Amino acid sequence: MALGRSAALRVGSLVLVCTLAACGGGASANKEPPLENFTAEEIYKRGEYELEVGNPRRPSEALRYFQEVERLYPYSEYAKRALIMQVFAQHKAKKYEEARVSAQRYLDTYPGSEDAAYAKYLLALSYYDQIDEVGRDQGLTFQALQALREVIEQYPESDYARSAAMKFDLAFDHLAAKEMEIGRYYLKKGHYTAAINRFRVVVEQYQTTTQTPEALERLVEAYLALGLVDQAQTAGAILGHNFQSSPFYDDAYRRLKKQGLEPEAKGESWLSTIYRQVIKGEWL
């Protein structure tokens, strides 16, 4: 029975791997033949195999083969393919700075390549995948946002634009979450003005994130603590109009009712401006 194409490729890859690894036993079995003896394609496929095995230690081994393709066959098509695979292997090995350098080198060398969008996306991921917790330095988050934005703007029709847009929203939310974390700390300590400043940043600059409902509820709490009822009522009105089903609105509504107040736009403040713009559509 004839082998299918995919099965034949797997067999071919296995034979190639065995050749490169000196399969077959004997004294030479433990020593790899000089890579200079193999073609660019053969070395490249060995690197692919190392990645596919799935061993956590494999990315670095795969990287060696891709680098050797570039060294031994610098002007070949496989050298070009090996460079983008270097970026992938470095990212998989969590060598993020090296991945960024390789990705940028690919973009500088092959700006019009069909893999340029992928290189740009991997460069963005090298920042994004280091955003692992709210308390971390936010510099990486800003860099991730910038790099993701470039993927979206420069390669809008690519397969990576949609994924970059989703990750952009998550990174944006991450920045808002940091502001909320600091704001809650100030609120707990009774530093109401400092807390308000943080929640204001969320409402004004990150209003499309998931942090906005809580920011408005916390503003109600902080303004009530300062006796600034107009601002508290206005924050409650915005919250009620945009997030009425949110538990944060329930909390804000109870706080206002406890003092005999209603969630409604009152007075003149930055929140009144937000109310007129977002709810009444008065932007001038």
TrEMBL record:
UniProtKB keywords: Cell outer membrane, Lipoprotein, Membrane, Palmitate, Signal
Keyword Signal: yes
Signal sequence bounds: 1-29
Domain of life per record: Bacteria
Pfam families hit by this protein: YfiO
Gene3D superfamilies: Tetratricopeptide repeat domain
Protein's membrane topology: Lipid-anchor
Gene Ontology cellular component list: cell outer membrane
Annotated GO biological process: Gram-negative-bacterium-type cell outer membrane assembly; protein insertion into membrane
Claim: Kinase is one of the keywords in the record: no
Cellular localisation: Cell outer membrane
InterPro entries linked to this entry: BamD, BamD-like, TPR-like_helical_dom_sf
Domain annotation Outer membrane lipoprotein BamD-like: ranges: 39-235
Family membership: Belongs to the BamD family.
Oligomeric and partner information: Part of the Bam complex.
Function: Part of the outer membrane protein assembly complex, which is involved in assembly and insertion of beta-barrel proteins into the outer membrane.
Protein name: Outer membrane protein assembly factor BamD
Native source species: Rhodobacter maris
